[in-house]
Amino acid sequence: MRRARNRGTSRTPLALLLPALLGLLFLVLPLLGLVIRAPWRALPGQLTSAEVWQALRLSLICATAATAVALVLGVPLAWLLARTEFPGRRLIRALVTLPLVLPPVVGGVALLLVLGRNGIVGRWLDSAFGITLPFTTPGVVVAEAFVAMPFLVISVEGALRAADPRYEEAAATLGASRLTAFRRVTLPLIAPGVGAGAVLAWARALGEFGATITFAGNFPGTTQTMPLAVYLAMENDPEAAIALSLVLLAVSIAVLAGLRGRWMSTP
Amino acid sequence: MQFSSRTRTATIALAALALAGGLTACGSSAKSSGSTGGSASSSSSPAVSGTVNVFAAASLQDTFTELGKKFEAAHPGTTVKFNFGGSSALAQSIVSGAPADVFAAASPATMKTVSDAKDNASDPKVFVRNTLEIAVPKGNPKHISSLKDLTAPGVKVALCAQQVPCGAAALTALKAANLNLTPVSLEQDVKSALTKVELGEVDASVVYQTDVKAAGGKVDGVGFPEAAKAINDYPIADLAKAPNAAGAKAFVQYVESPEGIAVLTAAGFQTPSAASSPAPSAS
């Protein structure tokens, strides 16, 4: 293996190297552009302004809350998909992963029609509990969790499939209930997978735009997260938009770098 | 159950629209090389052909779509393509090099973004004006009759963000009325603000008179006196880097022609000359 790799680098055909470098440039250049065009001198002022701080704080809180929701609901869902057999499981699995490929704005429309004041569920929530989700901070969490949870489910399901079920069976023969076996044996076994899924979900929630602006609206301090602030800043203050984008870029790079080192590295 | 039937109608309408859109797209590309001579109107303009890309404020969507069709009929061989959106976002994309021929903005301020970048071929001209109105769900369930009613507790209001003209105008009107209003959302263009009223998610929104009219009875409009202090001027200009300069000039001419103005006034826009105060120059 090692020998082949060593030889390969010295003999990379130009026909592959050229498009590969172009591809690299294509992906990295826009990000470089952001860094080059950044108003570095005005940056400290931009980043410490109350509005930016407000949007950043809200983004961090909502993304973390959305990840918590995804963990509480997503881990059991992943377990259901990986460890049980029931009719229609493949269909359910496809539906669970749908938000991965669905345009987020479509998700936002769907959420608005179901959980809005006049939605099937939303109407009932409003009349029975006086809860309306659109235009509220919990609404942002709902929108972000909808888009981010599939990332966690996929990751945890993969970890569960890779984990040997015989450990659980052994625990069961020793008298542990299924829940205890899950909690004491399975969960520690798949912890890295859960961690990776949670970080991915968190990063996805942090960057969520379409579903949030459609379902939760845009109001500073309540529902205006960083991506929304970037979008509106771009309309009249591109410098502020660049500054905000840099923050999101830095956070995303940190997350991916952390993931790569811990969980995604391949031998 | 009312909900599900409404969704079904919407789905069917959407499908029909997509189909119609596909068909017209095919039709127009097939006849794009038609003859240009002998058109009834605008005999003075040079022969125009090809595609005219028009960037226009979201509030112009219905009228300009109609004007586009009429323009295509008057100038066989042309296709008018529209990019509707918030004026500020459109201005930014023009300045960033979007291939636009014509820009019709909902405010002189957003047109200025383009003028400042020297992207106008000619001086922008105000062609219509628009007045604000409060849009409320059908039947006005919260009994809103004035701007002040919007500040009542328990009334959910969506405004346009102040970066877009309808938001700037709404802010001017609220200031004129000395009101402090906290909306639940600041929408990125006037149409999305109106949609939130149509869906019943908010109790009111401040939009243009023309949008209420275009909603065709799906929402009710409530006029308010402070609107007179926040009338929006709509400037139009052909663009310096227009890929289709002749087409751009012809389209601007058509919008300003009596025929074009008739379509706009029928939708509720006012002409600059009809207003009592002189229209401020856009430059």
Offer a quick outline of the entry.
Chain A has about 270 residues and is mainly alpha-helical. In chain A, about 80% of the residues lie in helices and about 0% in strands.
CATH superfamily of chain A: MetI-like
CATH domain class name of the largest domain in chain B: Alpha Beta
User: What is the CATH homology-level superfamily of the largest domain in chain B?
Assistant: Periplasmic binding protein-like II
Main beta sheet of chain A: strand number and arrangement? none
Mean of residue pLDDT values of chain A:
87
Looking at the structure, the CATH topology of chain A is MetI-like fold
Tell me the number of helical segments of chain B per DSSP (H or I, 4 or more residues long).
9
Overall shape of chain A: globular
Largest sheet of chain B: 5 strands, mixed
Rg measurement of chain A, Å: 22 Å
**Helix-strand category of chain A:** mainly alpha
- Coarse morphology of chain B: elongated
Q: Specify the CATH class of chain A.
A: Mainly Alpha
Please report the total strand number of chain A as a whole number.
0
In terms of structural class, how would the helical and strand content of chain B be classed?
alpha/beta
Give an overview of the whole structure:
Chain B: This is Molybdate transport system substrate-binding protein. Chain B: It comes from Kitasatospora kifunensis. Chain B: Residues 1-25 form the signal peptide. Chain B: InterPro entries: ModA, ModA/WtpA. The complex is a heterodimer of chains A (267) and B (283). With 267 residues, chain A is mainly alpha-helical. Chain A has helices spanning 2-10, 14-37, 43-48, 50-83, 89-101, 104-115, 120-129, 137-162, 166-173, 178-189, 191-206, 210-216, 226-236, 238-264. In chain A, α2 (14-37) crosses α14 (238-264). Chain A is globular. Chain B is α/β, with parallel strands linked by helices and 283 residues long. Chain B has two domains: 50-128 and 234-266, Periplasmic binding protein-like II (D-Maltodextrin-Binding Protein, domain 2), CATH 3.40.190; 132-229, Periplasmic binding protein-like II (D-Maltodextrin-Binding Protein, domain 2), CATH 3.40.190. In chain B, the strands form two sheets. Chain B has a five-stranded mixed sheet with strand order 2-1-3-10-4. In chain B, β6 (157-160), α5 (165-176) and β7 (185-187) form a beta-alpha-beta unit. Chain B is elongated, with a radius of gyration of 20 Å. The chains are: A mainly alpha (267), B alpha/beta (283). The interface between A and B is medium-sized, with 23 and 22 residues.
